[in-house]
Design brief:
Layout lengths: L4 E4 L14 E4 L2 E4 L16 H19 L7 E8 L5 H11 L6 E6 L9 E8 L6
Parallel strand pairs: 4-5
Antiparallel strand pairs: 1-2, 2-3, 3-6, 4-6
Helix pairs in contact: 1-2
Length: 133
């Protein structure tokens, strides 16, 4: 394995459901895979529509960051994928409760379909110390 790319894994977030890592650290950046509203304990999608899924997605991202000694405050960029862009306001209100100023840079796009028929998926990039574990 390339020593400059280190995988990050935690049981506090859903296990990867394909050939990917929950996150990798490379060059001082923690880059997460997209997270959907899977409950890490059950492996099932959470209930509560886009609101319930958004909370779970952000909790999953937070757990991955914490596994590497980081937090949501370290996030520099996110990408939000929505099944329906009309959910933007609801997702945005919940998102605002997890991220404080200065807010991360962000893109938000509507997509045709997400894994497990999720309504929202979010990935993140955060700055981390190269020697943190």
């Amino acid at each position: 394995m390339d020593a400059s790319k280190q995988p990050v894994s935690t049981d506090a977030a859903p296990a990867a459901i394909g050939p990917y890592s929950q996150a990798v650290v490379c060059g001082g950046w923690l880059i997460t895979s997209g997270q959907i509203g899977l409950d890490p304990g059950t492996g099932q999608m959470v209930e509560g529509g886009v609101e319930g899924e958004t909370h779970r997605v952000l909790q999953n991202l937070q757990a991955i960051l914490e596994a590497r000694g980081a937090s949501l405050a370290d996030v520099a960029r996110c990408t939000v994928y929505l099944k329906d862009l009309s959910d933007f306001q609801a997702v945005n209100e919940i998102y605002a409760g997890y991220f404080q100023e200065p807010h991360p840079a962000r893109a938000c796009v509507e997509v045709a379909r997400l894994p497990k028929d999720a309504l929202v998926e979010i990935d993140a990039m955060a700055r981390v110390a190269d020697d943190a574990h």
